């Protein structure tokens, strides 16, 4: 791949299919084998239908001028995909998002199996979100079932979909830190250790976890090729692959996460705002957001998404980010049920955001090194970073400035009940520098202040800022 | 024969046969057992390594 082509560092595991970019276009180069699989898949009924429904990413042969300059013979065929607005990873999704992605993956597999196609993997990272709609992106995964046998993606499906969902549904432990910790997901042995006692008797655990762990241990080091061959000659075929996919589909669907409340889950209903203050704040945000049409906006600390929706009025796409996965899960379900596709809710802790992960830390990109925002909302966020997590105020402002985007900050004064609540847990001397005066000075050194408005309630001030260059 | 780029895992293959309610699983075990242990004596724990 020559210099004008940029390789996707996360695409190397399947040698038959390689993703790269040119001029913002997403391209996929196929080997001779990959091309044969694609040609066969493109001629089916199921794949064009899945693409038309938006369940599989729109894909077409790349135009000749786009592939000009590629080393001759490097690929047999080059495809072009529609671009996903912002790439995200399963460890940034909520329970319902991972669940919807799992269901989609199994529906896609079943549609393929119906026409004698199978899939090479069962990996959660093969799904992306377009707003609240999950989309399967790895078209290189489809292959005609040349000889049947077990579905090779079963273990991956367990590790990156089923186990994280079970962990959260059966133990009320949020899966994100674990999926972020291991790029291949949770292992059967880890899950068996966690799902014991009552959880060990829940639906699907005996076979998919306990038996799985025992057999994995028993057959460690044995060649899977032998098992594949033997199961094939014993008659493991389409019927069995369909049965596995149906089991995974049903199990994924019926898992439920019941956490009734969290730190932030009733914030929208219980915060200190009355109607007047709420309206003034909404007007301010709308004024700032609509100053220009924005390609991408971020709402940091989005809670119930009220202001994400306002930003979405004048943005092509909005990332609604919060640290509380219950709050984000509710927002996702609400937006999904409304059919909103230009707001993507994500679970991110801004004091510990997604790092670069995988091979050479390049397979998965850090949160702030993907698409750059043009507009950023940070409403009632700074006091959490500064007081709650001890990030010095100037550092918070430096980071905001580094984003290079128009910014709306709601600064919560130290006299505000919510700031007082945070300060109450700290020794008196630790946050003497947290004040509106200090923030005004810090801001003036880094930003042009487009508008500054104290809210009538007297303990909060809104800023519309543009970074100085 | 056709191989996957992904190692599907021997244990995982057997579990998926159980999940599928695969009738041929007995046959599978029998022939696999023979293949995995045939060149070695009974009780040799590291037979296939």
Description:
The complex is a heterodimer of chains A (469) and B (49). Chain A contains 18 helices and 16 strands. Chain A is an alpha/beta fold. In chain A, the strands form four sheets. A seven-stranded mixed beta sheet of chain A has the order 12-11-10-13-14-16-15, sandwiched between helices. In chain A, a hairpin with a 2-residue loop joins β2 (17-22) and β3. With 49 residues, chain B is mainly α. Chain B contains two helices and no strands. The longest helix of chain B has 13 residues, at 25-37. The interface between A and B is large, with 50 and 34 residues.
SSE blueprint and pairings:
The complex is a heterodimer of chains A (469) and B (49).
Chain A: E1 6-7, E2 17-22, E3 25-30, H1 32-42, H2 46-52, E4 59-61, H3 64-67, E5 77-81, H4 95-114, E6 117-119, E7 127-130, E8 133-136, E9 142-144, H5 154-171, H6 176-181, H7 188-194, H8 205-218, H9 224-233, H10 238-254, H11 267-270, H12 275-289, E10 294-300, H13 306-313, E11 315-322, H14 325-338, E12 343-347, E13 375-379, H15 382-388, H16 393-402, E14 406-412, H17 417-423, H18 436-446, E15 447-454, E16 460-467
Parallel strand pairs in A: 10-11, 10-13, 11-12, 13-14
Antiparallel strand pairs in A: 1-2, 2-3, 3-5, 4-5, 6-9, 7-8, 14-16, 15-16
Helix pairs in contact in A: 4-5, 4-10, 5-10, 7-8, 12-13, 16-18
Chain B: H1 10-19, H2 25-37
